[in-house]
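does this look right to u?? uridine-diphosphate-N-acetylglucosamine version
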Amino acid sequence: MLRIISVVGARPNFMKVAPLHKAFEKLSVVSGQRSVESGKWKVESYKVGVENESNINHQPSTINHLICHTGQHYDEKMSKVFFDELELPKPDFYLGVGSGSHAEQTAKVMIEFEKILIQEKPDLVIVVGDVNSTIACSLAAVKLNIKVAHVEAGLRSFDNKMPEEINRVLTDTISDFLFVTEKSGVDNLRSSGVSTGKVFFVGNCMIDSLIHYLPKIDKSTILETYSLQPTAYLLVTLHRPSNVDDEQSLKKVIVMLNHLSEKRKIVFPIHPRTRANIKSFGLESLLNANVILTDPIGYLDFISLVKNCELVITDSGGIQEESTYLGVQCLTLRDNTERPVTVEVGTNHLIGTDFKKAELAALEILSGKKKIGKIPELWDGKAAERIVKILIEKLEADG
Ligand code: UD1
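got this back:
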């Protein structure tokens, strides 16, 4: 029996692991049935999958797919709501590491995850994306000679000031299987000398989730909740330290949003980091009433907001891809993107961090100057199935 542990830690991980879990369930016979109590999330005994392990004839293709949540994100609205909406089972292991400095958070995940690895002896660990939990769990696994698969490998911003870039480069360097979402990733891995036999261009698991949940997304009533008309409001998300940790920069963001809110309503679901900074810099009273600040929003409602808005303004990675898939205009307030296909093929405009320039670019889009995009290659809802098939073949071939 193959034992596989997939890791989730932060909000952008959940929608990437959900389709993998579904693909394992579809192809395999049994998945997690651990009972673990640790951290802040008491995990009850539970079982998912189609059969009880005791009924299983242990064929080589039998897979025990387990989920480990590091607890990097822990708020109900940053974590649990995604498990519920994406129909993920409760995690088999919850490490409860919480927030901290980069070193502290990464180290805590490593220490706790190593214990799980020693106890469970998996054949493979799957990590997704580029958050601190991604590198921490890969590193703990490879040091125990456990194979690692990195989903969303090869993306590069070439900006080492982004903690995610460091996480991406290091995770790719030590992983055994590299699953790539766009061609630039294949090129980046090739030019960094990675053996081509490890690299698989499979498409985008996050887009698998989006496609799978579109019928439910279309039933969302979030627009009514905030009295929004389709294609007549802007959606804003900002949480990168470079945009929101500096008082002057955050003030400029607010000035830009106030100006734009004279033209359109703005919905701004706010990351805990950004909310805390707005409060600590005393900027709350500066925002116009036409800027609706909300708590972080669940997956289905959030994608409904993206799908129906006139323009997204963001510094997120994933939202650049989701807006491209949905054909929605996106202004990315960063100097670089590790997802160039969204600019070259999709509807993303990489605008930099000059907020005056961003305001002008937004006004141009609102006046009708829109980019026509296409859906990138292999973003077809089947990435997770491709990944699971490759992994099973490779792991079984290795015996
Ligand atoms: C992390 C990822 C980033 C991703 C983002 C999505 C890293 C290096 N960064 O950034 O790539 O785009 O998640 O949200 O891994 N906090 C809460 N409640 C929570 C989680 C966080 O209040 O559930 C607050 C805490 O004050 C914490 C801060 O947010 O210190 C930052 O959280 P952290 O996980 O360190 O990084 P993010 O900024 O969320």
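The chain has two domains: 2-203+382-398, 215-366. idk if thats expected tbh
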